[in-house]
Write a structure and sequence with these properties.
The protein is an alpha+beta fold. The chain folds into two domains: about 200 residues, no CATH class; about 240 residues, Gamma-glutamyltranspeptidase, small (S) subunit (Glutamine Phosphoribosylpyrophosphate, subunit 1, domain 1). Helices cover about 35% and strands about 20% of the residues. The protein contains 19 helices and 21 strands. A seven-stranded antiparallel β-sheet has the order 1-20-19-15-14-9-8. β10 and β11 form a beta hairpin. α13 crosses α19. The two termini are about 35 Å apart.
Length: about 550
């Protein structure tokens, strides 16, 4: 097996572990654990701090999808908190303006944010520390500023002109017309005040209080069509997560409108093949996973929509019987095509993921996002709240499609995260940002660990592949290609080409995903963490 490129050391701990793309957020979570908080307390502190420190990727104007494992009951709970668009709109409203795709920026790209509602639901059900206390660190970084990390500085540089197009956004994020650079302090006092209001008044303040009224007014003054009820009626969906089994472990994923079911469907398809004795860079193993991806993504593109509004056979698609029927379509000797007849949702441009575990065995897998980098790029003046562009990035205007725009629907989300149980107890907790890459990353990490016998950091470090396109209508009609990271061995590329794949190498420095991963070693009662060197993050423990 080819050795993975050098990178970070694996991290071990006993009493607690935090893996995140923000070292500042990791420190916030670790502090909570050291002060006697549980994994859920720490996760809430991490989530809140990330909404301040990972500016392009997440915020209180974004959404959250979460899996939470309680060691005392051995139960996994799922949460989805993603909102609907403004109720004054419709697909026909946009089509009459001559649009064939949803606006990507500004108020018409925004969905009601779900982040704050998720915080309160997690706190109400699982946490032991006061809500206000868990937001303290986030408030401090917003009020006093934090030093911008390297990758975030790159995001600012790449998006400066877009952000400058919205005066209320530029006033805060581009103060004095300057793009925040690596190591520069970024201050958002308006956001600090909004977080203080939330710390005191909870979700009630964000969705029904003065803060809600300010946000709705700002959106509508800029041309949006929201009502107070759009915010006030937001609800968190709490559920038993969807799941399957793979190599003796139970794999849980987030429910639709998350597209986490793709991860499960792909695992079901490849489980019928023997990968023992292979490696992550074996062309035949990659070929098998890529062909399984094509089947799963075709199902997503043809069928999936908000299950509260659209009926589609989710349970059948993630069943073993369905995989048995479809597995025969995989040609082990040649790459197949992929149906792209129907337009689906646009892929995410920016997201962040973190995971937390404590010494009692509790664990949290949490992904949250503004969708595109800096979301809609629109900030409500006086609030510091940067809104998502989930409606713009997710819906199609194609009449009759399951994911056609509607103010009563949540768009399908690329956001998803996973967790596995071994012998009924939490074992693998993981996820990544990356839009359509996320389910493909999940399959690669799980097979690296369970099929190819890799340790957690090696599994994270290993060069990755990405079958492209996926669900983005901007690229949905392009020819299939298999993108591989620069370190993928040449023999692997040659083998994939012989199997009929059009293989393209990513440029040096261009990588896919920022995986965070925790393994819970139940036998030794040890936590093992790995953080992706492709990002700014860290795995930390005590």
């Amino acid at each position: 097996m080819t050795t993975a490129r050098p990178s970070r050391q694996v991290v071990y701990g006993k009493n607690g572990m935090v893996c995140t793309n923000s070292p500042l957020s990791a420190a916030a979570g670790l502090k909570v654990l050291q002060e006697g908080g549980n994994a859920f307390d720490a996760a809430l502190a991490v989530a809140a701090t990330e909404t301040v420190t990972i500016v392009p990727s997440c915020g209180i104007g974004g959404d959250s999808f979460i899996l939470l494992y309680e060691a005392e009951t051995n139960e996994v709970t799922g949460m989805s908190s993603a909102g609907v668009p403004g109720s004054g709109t419709s697909a026909e409203y946009y089509r009459k303006q001559g649009l064939t795709k949803m606006p990507l920026e500004g108020p018409h790209s925004v969905g009601v944010p779900g982040e704050v509602a998720a915080w309160e639901e997690v706190h109400r059900r699982f946490c032991s520390k006061p809500f206000e206390q868990l937001l303290d660190t986030a408030i401090g970084y917003a009020e006093e500023g934090f030093a911008v990390a390297p990758k975030i500085a790159q995001n600012f540089a790449n998006t400066h002109e877009r952000l400058a197009g919205f005066p209320s956004t530029a006033e805060v994020l581009l103060a004095g017309g300057k793009t925040p650079g690596e190591g520069d302090l970024l201050v958002n006092k308006d956001l600090a005040e909004s977080l203080r209001r939330i710390a005191k008044g909870g979700a009630e303040e964000f969705y029904k209080g003065d803060l809600a009224r300010k946000m709705v007014k700002a959106l509508n003054d800029a041309g949006g069509l929201f009502t107070a009820e759009d915010f006030a009626n937001h609800e968190v969906e709490v559920y038993d997560p969807i799941g399957t089994t793979y190599r003796g472990e139970t794999v849980f994923q987030t429910r639709p409108p998350s597209q986490g079911f793709l991860h499960l469907e792909m695992l079901n398809l490849i489980e019928g093949f023997d990968l023992s004795g292979m490696s992550y860079d074996n062309p035949e193993a990659i070929h098998l996973m890529v062909e399984a991806k094509k089947i799963a993504y075709d199902d997503r593109n043809r069928l999936a929509g908000d299950p509260r509004v659209v009926e589609w056979p989710l349970d059948e698609i993630i069943s073993k019987e369905y995989a048995d029927r479809r597995r025969g379509e995989i040609n082990l000797e040649w790459a197949g095509g992929e149906s792209r007849d129907l337009e689906a949702g646009r892929t995410d441009g920016n997201t962040t993921y973190f995971c937390v575990a404590d010494g009692a065995g509790n664990a949290v897998s949490w992904v949250h996002s503004l969708s595109h980098g800096f979301g809609s790029r629109f900030m409500a003046a006086g609030t510091g709240v940067l809104f998502n562009n989930r409606a713009g990035r997710g819906f199609t205007l194609e009449a009759g499609h399951p994911n056609e725009f509607s103010p009563k629907k949540r768009t399908m989300h690329t956001l998803n995260c996973y967790m596995t149980l071994r012998d009924g107890k939490a074992h693998i907790v993981g996820g990544t940002p990356g839009g359509d890459f996320q389910p493909q990353s999940g399959v690669q990490i799980i097979t690296n660990l369970l099929d190819f016998g890799m340790g957690p950091q090696a599994a994270v470090d290993a060069p990755r592949w990405w079958s492209y396109p996926g669900t983005d209508p901007a690229s949905i009609e392009t020819a299939m290609e298999l993108r591989v990271e620069p370190e993928m061995p040449e023999k692997t590329v040659e083998g994939l080409q012989k199997l009929g794949h059009k293989v393209t190498r990513r440029n040096v420095g261009q990588y896919d995903g920022k995986v965070q991963l925790i393994l819970i070693d139940q036998e030794r009662q040890v936590l093992i963490g790995a953080s992706d060197p492709r990002g700014d993050g860290i795995a930390t423990s005590y």
